[in-house]
Please model this.
Amino acid sequence: MSEQPSLLDWQPVTKARKRGPETSKAAARKAMPWATPQCNALLLLISDASRGLTRADLITLSGVKESSACARLRDMQDGGIIEVRGIRPGPYGMDVQVYHITPKGEARAKVLRDMACK
Model:
């Protein structure tokens, strides 16, 4: 049995706060079509970075808006695709988290790259 379908079956969960207003729920529904492509783009960037990337790095490199990047990073952490490993000084002198890919994320990135080559 091939592992590829299960790696591609994972989808980010776009969700609004439980007690959030209806506008938040509508925005979460509206974000659904872009969530998976954004996750894939962020994942490939993290996969290529041996030292990991910060949220600011990812926003700059990907062009994904900060609010969307934060949600997608949380989705990928919840899915076991990326993890925070350490901190480093951020652009404003505050320590920031560094995101690294997990073995599960690396397998997904490989599938995505293989699909792009076909």
Q: What stands out?
A: The longest helix spans residues 22-47. Confidence is low (pLDDT under 50) at residues 1-5. The chain is about 60% helix and 15% strand.
